[in-house]
Request: fold
Amino acid sequence: MQKDTIHAFCLKLRGTTHDYKEEWQADRYHIGGKMFAMMGGDATRKPIITLKCEPSRAEELRETYEGIIPGYYMNKTHWNSIYMDANIPEGLLENLIQHSYDLVFAKLTKKAQLSASHSNNSEFL
Reply:
């Protein structure tokens, strides 16, 4: 999946905001002020996307797909990084982005959930 396709998919998720962290050279996607996805590169600048994941599912995905690794510069239990050129089934990446979004959304306060679910998506540059 291409970077602009991922960017567009993330921004379709209700209440998502986007920013670019210059120091990390990474695009970040948030819901209710909490990050659920980050696109950037690994130490060699190979493109990756990092997503929150339920721990047992994260481990299973790492064992199944060579292109899915423990979260790069993130908590290895709760985050996976996926190489953009990884050979994974079509639709899996979108499913994992949605899973990450849902996990983060579920941890927001009820007030933040209500606010996020009623807000229009906006992009910050």
